[in-house]
């Protein structure tokens, strides 16, 4: 299951009709797969553009050469809020946290965020600085800082496509995460120990669920594997 599948399934389930992607020239890559029959208002905001000519063939509603999404978010804040905002940031802590906070501010009450790269499989792809090849960076850290213990939200993370965090802007069942929060903050100043703690506790920190559990949770049909005779 891809991030675009989650976006489309949530849209169909909850009747979402407006979608915004916040990404960089090197992230996202699912915008063309968003169901336009579901999302009548579908927009994409890209920050950190270095080469304008390289993006001439891409479908971008808002673009800026600034290294952060702050300017775009401020401009969008005067417009109607979105039902769903997808965030695929530059994976530093600063960019990730700013994008998540900004996206949440553009979301209507009852809407949902989908955040990519929240479940890095190993410490190599979770390096804090840009590395060649697959790179989730520390988006997982910013995501956990945002959701853990926050009132007025419901969140879970689907264990697919490097981890897709789903955050609903509405309260859910109470979870006692006080000890988890304490230990998470205690690890915050050491990249190595923080990732180790995350690795040992990712199920609880992320509220991690499988693709099948996601489908069950959202009342979606399970995918039936083909029979041996098919």
From TrEMBL:
Keywords: Methyltransferase, Transferase. GO terms for biological process: methylation. InterPro entries: SAM-dependent_MTases_sf. The keyword Methyltransferase applies. The keyword Nucleotide-binding does not apply. Pfam families: Methyltransf_24. Coiled coil: none annotated. GO terms for molecular function: methyltransferase activity. Signal peptide: none annotated. This is Methyltransferase family protein. It comes from Methylovirgula ligni.
């Amino acid at each position: 299951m891809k991030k675009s599948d989650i976006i489309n399934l949530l849209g169909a389930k909850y009747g979402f009709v407006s979608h915004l992607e916040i990404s960089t020239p090197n992230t996202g890559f699912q915008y063309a797969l968003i169901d336009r029959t579901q999302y009548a208002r579908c927009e994409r905001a890209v920050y950190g553009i270095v080469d304008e000519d390289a993006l001439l063939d891409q479908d971008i509603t808002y673009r800026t050469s600034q290294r952060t999404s702050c300017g775009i978010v401020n401009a969008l804040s005067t417009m109607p809020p979105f039902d769903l905002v997808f965030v695929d940031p530059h994976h530093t802590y600063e960019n990730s946290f700013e994008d998540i906070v900004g996206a949440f501010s553009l979301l209507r009450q009852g809407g949902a965020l989908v955040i990519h790269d929240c479940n890095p499989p190993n410490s190599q792809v979770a390096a804090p600085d840009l590395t060649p090849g697959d790179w989730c960076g520390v988006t997982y850290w910013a995501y956990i800082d945002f959701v853990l213990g926050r009132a007025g939200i419901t969140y879970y993370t689907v264990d697919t496509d490097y981890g897709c965090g789903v955050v609903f802007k509405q309260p859910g069942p109470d979870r006692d995460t006080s000890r988890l929060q304490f230990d998470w903050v205690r690890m915050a100043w050491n990249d190595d120990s923080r990732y180790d703690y995350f690795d040992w506790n990712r199920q609880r920190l992320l509220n991690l669920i499988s693709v099948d559990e996601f489908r069950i949770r959202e009342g979606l049909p399970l995918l039936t594997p083909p029979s041996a005779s098919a």
